[in-house]
Protein 1
Amino acid sequence: MTLSLSTPDFLIERNRDRCINCQVCVRQCANEAHIWDEEEQRVKSDDALCVDCQRCVTLCPTHALTIRKYPLEFRENANWSANAIKAIYKQAESGGILLTGMGNDQPYPIFWDHLLLNASQVTNPSIDPLREPMELKTFLGRKPEKLMVQDGKLVEEMPPQLELEVPIMFSAMSYGSISLNAIKSLAAAAEKTGIMYNTGEGGLHKDLYKYGKNTIVQVASGRFGVHPQYLEAGAAIEIKIGQGAKPGIGGHLPGEKVGLEVSQTRMIPEGTDAISPAPHHDIYSIEDLRQLIYSLKEATQYRKPVGVKIAAVHNIAAIASGIARAGADIIAIDGFRGGTGAAPLRTRDNVGLPIELALAAVDSRLREEGIRNQVSLVIGGSIRNSADIVKAIALGADAVYIGTAALISLGCHLCQKCNTGKCNWGIATQNPLLVKRLNPEIGAERAANLISAWEHEIKELLGGMGINAIESLRGNRLMLRGIGLSDRELSILGVMSAGE
Amino acid sequence: MSVLNAKGVYYRELNRQIRAQFASGVEEVRVQNVNGQRYIGDGISGSQRLILEGTPGNDLAAYMDGLELIVEGNAQDAMANTMNKGRIIVHGHAGDTVGYAMRGGEIYIRDSVGYRVGIHMKEYLDRVPAIVIGGTGGEFFGEYMAGGVLMLLGLGLADAAPIVGSYCGTGMHGGVMYIRGEVEEYKLGKEVKSVSLTAEDEEKIQHYVSEYVRYFGGDAAQILARPFNKLIPANKRPYGDLYCAW
Ligand code: SF4
Ligand code: SF4
């Protein structure tokens, strides 16, 4: 075997004064970074195996453990960062494509942090959400051009709508990429809070059919587990074209993660790779997309909204316009910080657009073309808190998808190793010993708490602006000002500069 | 049996009528003057029979779950998209992407098919979908195939005329193709290999050929007289060692 030039990323520090050799860390670390040395009768560690998931740190009863960045410093070089060098060592050793998990972690600008919200002073009273009603209810789906009422009733039938108590949904995460307990947590939290979760492209596990009215079922290029009963099971259908972490790339669930239940849900043999081709091979144009949208509408007799999820890429405004015209009821746009169970590193970190710019561009374009009413816009790709949501709505979103934030609420520590299947938090794994670490009841409680907390915060922020219904904020870019942005960026975002 | 006339009827209305017929308990529906209406039979579950006279449009029998569908004419593109169960018999040609991601049921096509037929077909437990084609197949035949059976008979083909297009079985990682005649090496995707037939294969081939003959006529013995080429994935995990962990 050739010598590996890879060095550890993290340093495990064990405070020997505190360590009682209880071996909790040994049992907790699926990466086997902690080892019980029988001879010496004490716990040891191998730094090279640690991924900094913080599991052992959190569970160590005496707080004996600290994880640090490995203090090995390459000679300072502004061009060749430690990661740039390490990547080459790994590829020189393996000849492989670098694979990683979660979202783009590079220091690109975060436009949310360059947008400031407004508040009322004197000329327009602010509203106290604790005393006054505040409406966050959101309907997703095509809205008619105009409403005609006769005898107190709508003349034309309303196109099908998704009803949300809060403009937040859990984004698509497939069974396979995350554990059944993680999905159960999100499904139950969605039910509790009156929102939706999304199956992702891995089919619908039999235990999850009961959450149907809070479910968006996804149809992706691999069509795993897609059949009439599945299409009927959810409140809406989403065609997945792409995702922010890997625009233009398909999915690939390795055979190791296709155990009995994943196999039953995806309807493929156990242990086989589940490959989702990069494109849907029946969609090479907007016209073809229209055909898939209408095939789904026909199959479900026009009773469910059909959405299309795409990654934010350079020509996003024109693409979104095409999708609206193709008959989608909802367009979901995933920004380049969106998470994933596995993606090639170079794609994750270099392809796509910040969701803020994509959202503003799409909303403006659909308005200019007079078709904004035809489609609802849902955005995702790193919504971190309720302020991001309020800013997104003011930029023109109807609702947001949260994926990474939802997983963090379940205990994810963003170690970015979802692709390895060894998630110590029981989320991105199919190993039954790890999966059972995540109790779906507790998970549901935590995820639901997050939604309720954000709901309160959104109401506070709205009240501060003197707005009592989220509808009045939607696309209301006057409530935003940019700070530290170029004129060009301000014009794409369609907001004035702070101070204006 | 009930008879519907599709002349001048928009697809949405036609499909509504077909569903209504089945919902009312009719076991066999014959639709006359079908002329390009899309999505016929989409997402319908049940074991009834649907007979179409004419040329149905794209996405015929998408997500279909059980029907027996007979086309007395040609079928267009994307027939049997993600089909789950059932049987389709086409007395003519069919277009591109027949049986995309199909996971169950059988399709018999009397004549030829277009590009990308049988892409990402899968199988699961007792569901082994099959597409049997009397004529030739276009390029990307069986691309990404993950399960099931694809069969090309090349009937009436002039000597040395190609039976299938290039990139046959690219990305194939499951299932089997039986092609009656030779496929030039250069046409095969690099994930595919040609192997010799087993007794079990012979049996399967006989079964599908006899079904074909049952629907469209012909001489099974004569068809079987010409050797079949069996194509399977060279590797069940074509992308198994493509990656290294960051
Ligand atoms: S991988 Fe996680 S559990 Fe293992 S040593 Fe590192 S921080 Fe602790
Ligand atoms: S889901 Fe698990 S593996 Fe993925 S980043 Fe979070 S803690 Fe790490």
Note: Chain A has a mean pLDDT of 95.
Protein 2
Amino acid sequence: MKTTTAQNPSRRKFLKNSAALMSGLVIGFYLPMKNGRVFAAEEHPKQIYPPNAFIRIAADDSITVIVNKSEMGQGVYTSLPMLIAEELEADWNRIRVESAPVAAVYNHTGFGMQLTGGSSSIPSSWEQLRRVGASARILLIRAAAQQWGVPESECHAASSWVIHTKSGNKSSYGALADAAAKLPLPETVELKSPKDFKLIGKSIKRLDTPEKINGSAQFGLDVYLPGMLTVLIARSPVFGGKVKSFNDTEARKLPGVQGIYQVPTGIAVAATGFWPAKTARDLLEIEWDEGPGAALSTPKMRAEYLELAKKPGLVARNDGDAVQGFKQAHKSISAEYEVPYLAHAAMEPLNVVVDLNTDHCTIWTGTQAQTMDRASAAKTAGLKPEQVEIHTTFLGGGFGRRANPRSDFVIEAVQVAKVIGKPVKIVWTREDDTRGGNYRPMWADHIEAAIAKDGKPLAWKHTIVGQSIIADTPFEAFMVRNGIDATSVEGAATLPYVIPNLQVELHSPKNAVPVQWWRSVGHSHTAFVVETMIDELAHLAGKDPVAYRLGILPAASRYRGVLQLAAKNAGWGKKKLPANHAYGVAVHQSFDSYVAEIAEVSLGNGKIRVHRVVAAVDCGMVINPDGVRQQIEGAIVYGLSAALHGAITLENDRVVQSNFHDYVPLRFSEMPQIEVHIVESSEHPTGIGEPGTPPIAPAVANAVFKLTGKRLRRMPFDQETLA
Amino acid sequence: MISFKINGKATKVDVDPNTPLLWVIRDHLQLTGTKYGCGMAQCGACTVHLDGRAIRSCVTPVSLASGKQVTTIEGLAETTLGKTVQAAWQEVDVPQCGYCQSGQIMSATALLKENPHPSEAQISAAMDGNLCRCGTYNSIRSAILKAAEHQGGAK
Ligand code: FES
Ligand code: FES
């Protein structure tokens, strides 16, 4: 188990920095580091947690598990209760789930605050929640043994009963719960051996499915309070712009409009419902102070980025001597890559409900970052964090957007509530959501690579250009080292192939477009770049892409297992594909999980058609195989949407795209068949929400090369192929 | 006043007749199972049945519902077919975040009503207007095929 101590100097620095940033609101973050990235494993794995914070057993034997992670589709309302139920020996059919309030006991074991992200829910709860379940089981057995006057060692638990076989005594958990709750916490807790698992490792149906198919699941947008007003905000069309003047005469005349207010982010229209608020907002005349105006436009930025990519940057990795390496090259190659800004575009647009009183603030929203949001809301409202209550609803997709390190949507909502003085629901339209910034950064890359006579890579120089996601956030002190944001170079500086002379450099230009983590963060771009370049090297060496990769991966590398498993199941090199179909492969590690994907692709009318994807994943021990399949499928669809269609572009400082007609997700008719194969493993479980995304774009690009001889080096591919 | 039936119940609302049916369903009747995703007939999250046919309620003025029957996800289980589709969804365990699923189920039910045994191509065509950012399309296809099978068995 990897741990870091609280004396970690970077932690102290972090606390200092975050205190400064948040004006005295110190939140007890501690962010252990691994390879410069926030490491999601548990800080104090052997800690005993009070089970009653996580488990409530009622007299009727129903068991409520309080889940401290946000359910955004990734299945934590099922997989996390499984960890508890396994050790608790609970009757799975009686498990219910409740979302946790904000409290220190619910902090992420690695991040030291309540946060759902970094594909870390399972890895960071694996020890903790099993220990919670085991502690409760021990106390229930103890309570029963005391009542019966028999030794604990003669009792056992099964399916929510404590049983004393000798006497035939039996008591249900519901009957024992009160007595157990009065006992002191056990001092030591032993966990089951994996061979005794009854739930872990089985495909268990999601607990949230029934309410998600009958319409009763409550998302943020579904919260209605008595007297609540619906608020739409007209925000600046350019990032950082301010209202100069506005005319709301016509807007105020509309029935249902209750008030129009200037707020820090723009003009807020409050009405009895969405429709009057929306129609009134359309009638506003606003003059904006756009500030200096950087005249940001995508073509210009692309040219600047590509220029920068040829210049020396900060060094993120430097093995051997790249200059010397290139001198000895047998063959070499260089290429430029580009990927655009991307919006998260969760199906549920952002929204927040706030009920603010003089000494209390209640917030309902689908957030991934409760502790940060609570601190920000408190500061905005002039309250203490304890006076702010957050109800985490279901999230209609998160993908990182709902963990905003600046708490953008929550702060704005509290600002509005302060002005209006009534319960408010702030609704972002799809257009607001698409144009609201906080995008996956746009990137440009330059790679020069060389192979030796034997075809193996000899030298590799990769220069990356793109905004830092972490700069100017409370995470900066931890995740930016010597000017290098670990998330900017992840997947590139961590290239697994044996390359004696390897250099990775970074430029982090700044501009007014807010950027944020997007499913798989830096990997969403680096995997595309490095895995297509490796494919080029295989071609240059005249080798099969799978064999080539296996030839240059270290012997014990876990990349190998997934690559071989995917190749085997796809029939790589063996299966006869239909005419004009080709396979492309890519393999990548992110969030400590390894994924290989093989895409079967054809082209028709210049359009890329992905027929089938064979994925293999190694995420350590698997909690719920069907959950893993769902996440890999979803991650592939998410990555494929971006690879084929996704781009946010700017013209004259304004975002061009606005809704799903011009920011296009993958549709049903484009859906490939997907097979997910899981490597059997007894390793500590690792992330599963994101690792399926990075390999799909390079796998498809490599298949297109096979078909056409043309390298796709710019996303999205539909613009590239049409260009 | 505009009157219509929603999930079998007679309803009257006093709103601007141009108000999209979606916002009447959500803001006035507080049936929140029907979702807002795009407001421009691009995503299908707002799909409901108007006299049995799937429509995008975000672009349908409430005046068009006048005198008609509206069915939302909350009322779907009142028909055998609706129940069958929901059961198939449960069996396949389709939803991830769940936000698009009411719309998916409403579209799928309308499809199966018109075409009890759709081919894969027909499923694909009928479901193409329903986006799912979580990528549950393959599970949706399986669930529709299952529902078709179960429905066939019931006949
Ligand atoms: S909300 Fe109606 S189709 Fe998207
Ligand atoms: S289940 Fe999340 S959008 Fe479809």
Note: Chain A touches chain B through 63 residues (CB under 8 Å).
